User: Fold this.
Amino acid sequence: MSLESFETQVEMVRAEATTAIKNYTALRDQIDQDPKLTDEGKREAHGALFEDYKPRLKELRTQEETHLDQAIERRLSLIESPNGLSTGEVISFRDAQDRAERIENADEAVRLLERALRQHDKILAHAILRVGLDKNYRNVVDAFTAKRPEMKETISELRQLEKLRENSFARTMHYGLSR
Assistant:
């Protein structure tokens, strides 16, 4: 799924949330304007209305988070595992992941990555890239994409998606209700 497709899905979910919040606000205003209700009656009606809308907005937020997690997972699978691994290569990939996870700094990661790329060891190169991404070793990502420019867009999209995941405040603003 392209980043644009993901953004379209999120926009649709957020639009539905915006409509629900507008409906909630309109109903809340109707309660406030109802001369037949006492202050206590208005508080009770507000509470009931809030409890009616809260689960739907929570569900919509969960949908957005699910779309986000799926988009991240798709990109990670492209980064982490070269396609068509045989049984022996799967074991090699796990070993490469273990080795890459023991890397202690960016210089060591770049050195090992460059060696892996020179030797056409895609499995180790992908494992080191993942460590570089996790530890934010910019020079590792740059070294990898210099040799594998076709991965640049995937890596860029992954970073954008991870920033979106970290920005939970924006999601709270889109799906939050006021009592």
